[in-house]
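User: Hi! I'm a student and our assignment asks us to look at how structure tokens line up with a sequence. Could you show me two examples?

Assistant: Happy to help. In each example below, the sequence comes first and the structure tokens follow. Example one:
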Amino acid sequence: MRLCTVALAVHLLAAVCMPAAFAQESAAPRRGEPITLNFTNAEIESVARTMAVVTGRDVVVDPRVKGTINLQTDRPISPAAAFNQFAAALRLQGFAVVQSEGLYKVVPEADAKLQSNAVTTSTSATASLSGNQIVTQIFKLNYEAANNLLPVLRPLIAPNNTINVNPGNNSLVITDYAENMRRLARIIAALDVPNASEVEVIPLKHSVATDLVPVLMRLAEGGSAAAPGQPAAAPGTSDASFRTTLLAEPRSNAIIMRAANPARSQLIRTLIDRLDRAPIDSGNGAAGNIYVVYLKNADAVRIATTLRAALTSAQAGMLGAQGTGGGPTRSRPGLSSNPSSSSTRWPARVAA
């Protein structure tokens, strides 16, 4: 009878304890299953252990990481979302999660850039990372100078993270959170565009290309000065891609232009339209002092040389006669030859 009483007591005790044991087992998080977060003033290290169990990741907490965090969700979420929320809460307290050789380390944000092993050169690879994960991305620029983007991007990066320029291959090396890195990638893509327009050949109808190009270059260089409040470029550091190039092509009397941008190209074209005008009729049937004489058989260069010498001698005689008579003097006409059209020009001044 006594043995039966002891056995019955053991069975009753087991029946009472087993539901509690099953309840504790069911309450414990399991790997891969959705989880409802309800951490209030929980130690960071204990929450990290829970995340390691739920996500199946190896999480290591730096001894310098101390403090408590709060994590709550109204409904069950996936393990990946739970880990991302955990990383976001750490980020608000100055800590970061870095991935290195399969380990997820919780470290102070200031040291994250030194321990992160996530390095990529493509935006698509960064898009697959958690937004609160530290990553290093290399941006190789095709058109824009890397030094020009540095002051633009620096204020957009967390103070503890870095941006550096490699002038050797014109690239940017940025270490920051993946979420912000995706935003920086969009900004860089919008700024790294061709600056210079295509090469254009603009034929002139009335003006001489060699005379007009110096005037246009002076106006173009004056228009590229630094704006008020902006620092001027240091001597010797100007980027050639931002310069407007103008060349005179005397054979076809045209201007070859490569502008720094479409706006500058339109400005140069407007100036050419305003300056390349027909001479004003003086009222005696001669419109200005530029004439074009097309030759049929003779060589324009030789004829121009001969006429220039003759005009020089005649002009010297006229100056001598006028000098003794005290009469007014007139400017000496000049000659320029255009071999392609076998023509001779008489501009207001000598154009070799």
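Example two works the same way, sequence first and then tokens:
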Amino acid sequence: MIFLTAIETALLSAALFFMIEFLSRIKIKKQVLKLQKASFLGKRNKIFKEIDVLLARSGVKSKAPFFDAGNMLIFSAALFVLGVILFRRMGFASLFYASALVYVPYAGMMFLSSMNAKKIKETYLTFLTTFMGFYNIEGNIINSLKATAPYVAEPLRSILARNIFIYEKTQMSVYDCLDNIAREAGNREFRKFINFAKMNVKYGGNFTKALAKLREQAETLFSLESIKSANAYVGSLVILVMIVMNLILMMSFSADVEIANTIRNTLTGQVIAVSNAAAIVFGLWMIKHINSTA
């Protein structure tokens, strides 16, 4: 009897152990799935945010406020399908050309962003001087930005006016308003000004002294930054024009049945087509790299 009781106890303990182990594994699996889902959502949100920033910096957002990252991705998908149709006679290389065609609008927006960044760099000193004058009178960052906006050139004027209008009409915090302005402007020195402004909002202090220091730094960097921005502008324009011309040329080849068959059905033709597509993709990557370091 005692022996049977011991066996029952052992079996019960084993069953309990395996049940706990099973539940633990399920719990761990759920946690892993939850983390994977959070990671995926985080990456997706990051991509959406980067596209929204590009739309804002290029000026597309100001011209078409309804056009957001979601609409841009739908447009990209439609453009990819169109690219596959246009280059269908190129065989496997059609996927490369379709991908390049999708990226062209993004490269164009990067080019527009570099143009706007160049304009903001050119007007940054004027902005700082004007802002300092109004801040000495107002003593309030948002009010001073609002007063400064009419006296600076585009696109900074519209960026300031639009974001301050949104701030006044909604429950947006000063922090969010300043972040949106910095995100749209994109200029490194301007973001430095925004960071000082946010610190002043949070901690207080002598903001006039900080503005004087920022102006001194801006005067020192003005010449160098102007040259760097001009190089980014010219480099992006040249690469983008060559890529568009290349894509148009390949479209004409794809429309010619004889040439398209030669490219698609011969090893040499496929190597040339794929190499050319890879060169286009590299050129588009160079535009991104140039503008990210400008």
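Here is something you could point out in your write-up. The chain has one domain: 76-293.
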